[in-house]
What we know:
Blueprint: H1 3-19, H2 22-31, H3 39-59, H4 62-84
Helix pairs in contact: 1-4, 2-4, 3-4
Amino acid sequence: MDTLAEEIIGLIAASFTTISFIPQVFRTWKTKSANSLSWFMLGISITAAILWVSYGVYLQNTIIILSNSIMGILQLCLICFKFLFKSFSHS
């Protein structure tokens, strides 16, 4: 496979992976509830994003760095929501 095809596949895969968390962030913001989010999942996800960014820096791969930086930001949003919406209760 040539380099361009590899880059395109990587870009598409990274985009879909990153975009997949946007609905969860939006839903959590809209409902003002993060009760269903697991701390364990959030911890693993943010750790994975940090490791992927580090790996991307090592490889000097912009796609890996950018997509996982965005993923990390989305994960941090969800972590903040866990704290922020803790005091809210829904009937």
